[in-house]
Amino acid sequence: MRDHGGVPHHSFDPLAGRRTAADPELDVFVWGTVFLDMIFAGLPHAPQPGTEVWADGLASCPGGIANLAVATRRLGLRTSLAAAFSDDDYGDFCWRTLEEQEHIDLARSRRFAGWHSPVTVSMSVDHDRSMVSHGHPAPVSASELIGTPPRSRAVMVDLAEDEAFGGSSTWVDVARAQGSLVFADVGWDPLQQWPIHVLERLSRVDVFMPNAVEAMAYTGTTSPLEAVYALADRVPVAIVTDGANGALGIDARTGEEARVPSLRVHEVDPTGAGDVFGAALLVGTLAEWPLEQRMTFASLCAGLALQQYGGSLAAPGWGDLSDWWTALVSDASGDAYHRSLRRRFAFLDDIVPRVPVSACRRASATIARRADVPALD
């Protein structure tokens, strides 16, 4: 079912109780590069020159910024994506998957003839991943593609992206002036220079979510804790993710500080888990949950994504979250860890009863037809 603006709605809306007639139609607007991702997971070891290695699993799906767009959409947020798409078969597949399967608004995306789709091959080995990518710059800049950004509750951007922050008034500044919260992360600096001007852009950001390595490098600190304190002096909400060690956060607006552990899961593929964490944190922020609940919810969503092959395909929906909580409550395990889970995630008990049986759940691999693995708990 579509509303007047053409954005399809999933069967559970986590912000339903907060919407008013004056609110923007969109919850999230994102811009970036969409890759066709070919993800090989469960490799016994990295391939050596002149050898062949077989993977346990394969997934084919839209990647890059699509990981984030799919994650927010599956969690019930009305999501719009601006990106360049090729008119080749890969571009057709990515566009069709995002628009028809994931119900993401592509009104500000465009197809370009003669420009081929960016492609990434991701290989997951021993709880980490390596990638090989190929592509060319988009035929038009972000400002040309986006124009005036649509009104939305939030935008998500890369802090190091010059198109987002390079000028005195970019599309991100326009979006913020229109009322959008600006969520930002930052990628690995291939030159390892970690320029200070990138952190200076935090004055134009509301929530910053780097991982521990990037946070320590940019702030010149030696621990994730020191890094999150340094960042909290620059941005209203700072969250530093630290892999299996969990995440640390400070909300300077409320004075809240939190440290949450990661979910204990059998990790299959880390591709896209960071985007899922960010999407879930955005949901909790827009719903105005306490900081610890926001971070705990984000750790759950990222943990569920780690259990599946396939980048954007692994992003959980509310149906998956409802299934997980229902199984946990029904579990008779009385050990300390399970008791802790039931305490930490008790806030879901107020949400899950409102999640319909038909709520969005994770998809299977698309080009590959299905993931070549049994269902995981």
**Mean pLDDT metric:** 89
Q: How many helical elements? A: 12
Strand content: 15-25%
Oligomer: single chain
What is the rounded Rg?
Answer: 20 Å
CATH homology group: Ribokinase
Assign the CATH topology: UDP-N-acetylmuramoyl-L-alanine:D-glutamate ligase
How many domains comprise the coordinates? 1
Rounded to the nearest angstrom, the distance between the terminal CA atoms is: 31 Å
Major pleated sheet: 8 strands, mixed
Helix vs. strand class: alpha/beta
Number of strands: 14
> What top-tier CATH class fits best?
Alpha Beta
| Helical amount | 25-40%
Parts with pLDDT < 50 across at least 5 consecutive residues: 1-9, 368-377
By CATH, the architecture is named: 3-Layer(aba) Sandwich
Protein name: Sugar/nucleoside kinase (Ribokinase family)
GO molecular function: kinase activity
Keywords: Kinase, Transferase
Organism: Humibacillus xanthopallidus
Characterise the protein shown here.
- It contains 12 helices and 14 strands.
- It has helices at residues 65-74, 89-101, 142-146, 162-165, 171-177, 196-200, 212-219, 224-232, 273-286, 291-306, 318-330, 336-344; strands spanning 26-31, 34-43, 57-64, 79-82, 84-86, 110-112, 119-125, 128-134, 152-158, 181-185, 207-208, 237-241, 247-251, 256-260.
- Strand 7 (119-125) and strand 8 (128-134) form a beta hairpin.
- The longest helix has 16 residues, at 291-306.
- Keywords: Kinase, Transferase.
